[in-house]
Write a structure and sequence with these properties.
Layout (H helix, E strand, L loop, with lengths): L12 H17 L4 E17 L2 E19 L2 E7 L4 H17 L24 H4 L3 H18 L2 E17 L4 E16 L5 E8 L7 H14 L13 E3 L1 H14 L3 H5 L18 E3 L21 E5 L2 E2 L6 H7 L21 E3 L6 H6 L5 E3 L8
Parallel strand pairs: 7-12
Antiparallel strand pairs: 1-2, 1-4, 2-3, 4-5, 5-6, 8-9, 8-11, 9-10
Helix pairs in contact: 4-5
Length: 378
């Protein structure tokens, strides 16, 4: 739990936790057999640029609450971003009204019990929490400079945000944290439609090199000049990291969720071979090399889950609902209620190979280098 002072406009994580506890108390007074409150606050800032000019700088500070009201096997959810006491009580009452008219969920067993929450390093960077518009503008300027040098135009955005989250429930779950995230995305475009893409995300915005991203995107735009139509067919491809991330996200949505398995709509079967021996995928929100977080939206500590090992299916991720149905514990992958999608692996990693990018490309007689996919949705 963070005890750092408030950096910007969002209340501290401790204050958000006390607010969550109040909401749980209000729900119990209203007759809830179980109750949960999720409170999320953030200071989010964004600098946009287009045609190699900064055209927008915006910021938002907001705090929202969501109350899950349980009456036996009936559940109602309500939320608000109005934090006066009357509005909070009204939101709880609304959740209670919704619960009373909901059909029972026969497979619901319980909200999560308290459990260990891991100590996670590297989730917060003071530099990102305090990042100024001038710093984001300097990043945009570096991208634009790289584009200018290559004779193309730069488009994109540079975002920084501070997020604080707290979860409490009537069974004793208490969790609170603060974290930061920054992301720079750019597309460089030439006069004849040639384009190149690059992006980076980091807990610490000073770890992003805007000039390098600008050069990467501008170089791709330059290399795509004079592009030819490609006949439909089967081609060997080399996928850049951006395309791989897109595929992994879709695999997580389609198959690595316990709900997808329980509803018989997943390819996943433990022990089933789904890929090469070289393919190993896992989810680990505690790894500081990613964008770490200590717990999920239900206040359950994050666990590392081996999804695929050596091309073979191993495990899927669980939230409290799917874990209760399976008679096991949650892996800490719950999303905010109401949640029709089930648990989701938000922090996937893929084991690297021992062949470099240029060597992979050089190994193709005639093939494609794919930077990213557009609207992947099978």
């Amino acid at each position: 739990m963070s005890r750092d002072p408030v950096i910007a406009g969002t209340p501290s994580a401790d204050k958000l936790l006390r607010l969550a506890e109040r909401l749980v108390g209000y729900a119990e007074v209203q007759g809830a057999t179980q109750a949960e409150a999720l409170v999320q606050g953030g200071d989010r800032y964004l600098t946009r640029f287009a045609n190699s000019q900064i055209h927008q700088n915006v910021g938002e500070t907001d705090v929202s609450v969501q109350v899950r009201f349980v009456m036996g096997k009936r559940i109602g959810v309500s939320g608000t971003n109005r934090l006066d006491d009357e509005s909070l009580r009204r939101s709880v009452a609304t959740a209670a009204e919704i619960a009373r008219v909901q059909p029972e969920l026969p497979d619901f067993t319980s909200l999560p019990e308290p459990g260990p929450i891991p100590e996670v390093e590297g989730r917060y960077a003071h530099a990102t929490a305090e990042a100024s518009p001038e710093e984001r503008a300097e990043g945009a300027r570096a991208v634009i400079g790289a584009a200018d040098a290559a004779g193309v135009q730069a488009f994109g955005s540079f975002a920084t945000r501070l997020e604080r989250t707290a979860v409490a429930n009537s069974l004793g779950v208490r969790a609170a944290e603060q974290r930061t995230l920054s992301q720079l995305i750019t597309v460089c475009m030439g006069p004849d439609g040639e384009a190149g893409y690059a992006e980076a995300a980091s807990v610490d915005h000073t770890g992003i090199d805007p000039g390098a991203l600008g050069r990467e995107a501008a170089d791709k735009a330059g290399r795509s000049r004079g592009a030819m139509l490609l006949e439909p067919g089967d081609y060997p491809v080399v996928l850049e990291e951006y395309a791989v991330v897109d595929l992994l996200d879709m695999l997580g949505y389609l198959g690595f969720s316990a709900l997808a398995v329980q509803e018989d709509r997943s390819f996943f079967e433990p022990g089933k071979r789904v890929g090469s021996d070289l393919v190993s995928i896992w989810d680990d929100a505690t790894d500081p090399s990613g964008t770490p977080t200590a717990f999920d939206a239900e206040g359950v500590g994050k666990q590392r889950v081996q999804l695929v090992e050596g091309g073979v299916c191993r495990e899927v991720v669980y939230d409290a609902y799917t874990a209760g149905k399976a008679g096991r514990g949650s892996t800490g992958h719950g999303l905010p209620a109401p949640n029709p999608w089930g648990p989701f692996p938000l922090n996937q990693f893929m084991a690297p190979g021992d062949t470099g990018r240029e060597e992979l490309i050089g190994g193709l007689k005639r093939g494609l280098l794919v930077t990213r996919f557009h609207y992947t949705n099978p």
